[in-house]
């Protein structure tokens, strides 16, 4: 019996691991901007948006007295700052909403849905993402992601890599940490999960950040599974 | 435009509305008891178990200082009381676990899965049940219920019909109450939902309680939809 034989559920990082946020947002906004007559460097906007993502979650961590703030709202606040900073003109309320919900309309990497379908036959599968529940639910319907349930940082009022997220997922599933496998394209996410006793699986998504990618070209930890893609995980998990 | 044209999500009561708990549990336990050599009046046990369900949730409501207790645990506590009361002999820990997780192995009414599949093409669908997340997730895999997400009383640490459950579901979906439709075979559940602004749909499940059924043979409120079954709801919701 392998070390992963006790696993009952696989939970997935989503942005970058399951869906290709950068290419999709740039394509979406470039097309939309053309139709809407809004002129902007959409690539720079998308890269700038993601660049402030970690800091926006840190603000939530630093100020628990303000209460938990869901990712849709953090995205919106960061967008407003970037629109001012980049002097993008002519955006109304509906436009800002359209751009913010771009994160709900992301498409999967080619192997994501086939791999998830295989894994679902034998395991419980769900996201474990910093995206809020509505974002992840809308994305799943858009992208055809066959989740069994939606697990989100919002349910625990803590963003990854806070321990409450990984342990909260195990608790809601009534499983021990070692019965849950975290799947991610980001070594730091797996490191946090492994420290708490979860099993880990790494897939590289070397084009996630486009020319800006600096990390995560390969596994840098002792993960239970390292695979080329989700089909590789399904192979190794006996699906 | 009808009153339900703003609906984006349908949330479902589960025990009795989606699955036929009574017939399934009696059949499961009768077969299992025969194989295991445990002699008991399984019909009386199942009816007795459900009879103490509301009271067990009331205890949680009355004692917030004890913290929220998930339904699996309430089921287990009630079962232990009933085993003693009915003098059922020979049950070990694994047996009590098997019986308690009977509530995870329930099968749907014949129209449930076909109706849910139709509704899923146009709406977000999820349970909104007093069952805990793991129970509902396991049941969905067992019964093939094609939920988009699992919404459970556990996420709100309140049992229905507490307002926190209905309003919590709308909040997690980032929807207004009137954009969410509660579907149930129980008038009291719909009454609580309607009072908070949710839309409502009733289906009668007149055999839910077998010969013990006293209520809910028909709609007794002014519900937005009254249908014969889930296919009838799909018809009326334009799916």
Main beta sheet strand tally, sense and closure of chain A = 6 strands, parallel
H/E series of chain A:
EHHHHHHEHEHHEHEEH
Total number of strands of chain A: 6
Query: Which chain pair has the greatest contact?
Result: A-B, 20 and 20 residues
Q: Mind telling me the C-alpha Rg of chain A?
A: 18 Å
- Biggest sheet strand order of chain A reads 3-2-1-4-5-6
Unreliable stretches of chain A (pLDDT < 50, length at least 5) are none
Q: What is the CATH top level name of the largest domain in chain A?
A: Alpha Beta
CATH superfamily (homologous) name of the largest domain in chain A = HAD superfamily/HAD-like
Estimate percent helicity of chain A.
40-55%
List the helices and strands and how they pair.
The structure is a homodimer of 239-residue chains.
Chain A: E1 9-12, H1 21-36, H2 42-51, H3 53-62, H4 71-85, H5 93-100, H6 112-120, E2 124-129, H7 133-143, E3 151-152, H8 153-156, H9 163-172, E4 180-184, H10 187-195, E5 199-203, E6 225-227, H11 230-236
Parallel strand pairs in A: 1-2, 1-4, 2-3, 4-5, 5-6
Helix pairs in contact in A: 1-2, 4-5, 6-11
Overview of this structure, please?
Two copies of one chain form a homodimer. Chain A has eleven helices and six strands. Chain A is globular and about 55 Å long. Chain A has a six-stranded parallel sheet, sandwiched between helices. In chain A, helix 6 (112-120) runs parallel beside helix 11. The two termini of chain A are 16 Å apart. Chain A has 239 residues and is α/β, with parallel strands linked by helices. The mean pLDDT of chain A is 97. The first copy, chain A, has two domains: 9-20 and 106-236, Rossmann fold (3-Layer(aba) Sandwich); 21-104, Putative phosphatase, domain 2 (DNA polymerase, domain 1, Orthogonal Bundle), CATH 1.10.150. In chain A, 44% of the residues are buried. In chain A, strand 2 (124-129), helix 7 (133-143) and strand 3 form a beta-alpha-beta unit. In chain A, 46% of the residues lie in helices and 10% in strands. Chain A binds chain B through residues 72, 124, 132-134, 136-138, 140-141, 147-150, 154-155, 172-175, and chain B through 72, 124, 132-134, 136-138, 140-141, 147-150, 154-155, 172-175.
């Amino acid at each position: 019996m392998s070390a992963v034989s006790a696993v009952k559920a696989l939970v997935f990082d989503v942005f970058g691991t399951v869906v290709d946020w950068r290419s999709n947002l740039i394509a979406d906004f470039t097309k939309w901007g053309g139709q809407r007559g809004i002129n902007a460097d959409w690539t720079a906007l998308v890269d700038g948006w993601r660049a402030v993502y970690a800091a926006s979650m840190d603000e939530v961590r630093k100020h628990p007295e303000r209460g938990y703030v869901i990712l849709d709202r953090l995205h919106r606040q960061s967008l407003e700052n970037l629109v001012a900073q980049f002097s993008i003109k002519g955006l109304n309320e509906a436009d800002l909403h359209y751009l913010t919900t771009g994160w709900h309309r992301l498409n999967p990497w080619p192997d994501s849905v086939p791999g998830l379908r295989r894994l679902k036959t034998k395991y419980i599968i769900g996201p474990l993402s910093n995206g809020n529940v509505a974002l992840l639910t809308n994305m799943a319907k858009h992208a055809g992601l066959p989740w069994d349930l939606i697990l989100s940082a919002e349910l625990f009022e803590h963003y990854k890599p806070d321990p409450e997220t990984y342990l909260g997922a195990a608790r809601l599933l009534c499983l021990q940490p070692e019965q849950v496998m975290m799947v991610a394209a980001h070594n730091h996410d797996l490191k946090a999960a492994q420290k708490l006793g979860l099993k880990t699986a790494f897939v590289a998504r070397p084009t996630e950040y486009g020319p800006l990618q600096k990390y995560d070209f390969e596994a840098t930890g002792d993960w239970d599974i390292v695979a080329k893609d989700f089909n590789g995980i399904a192979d190794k998990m006996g699906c």
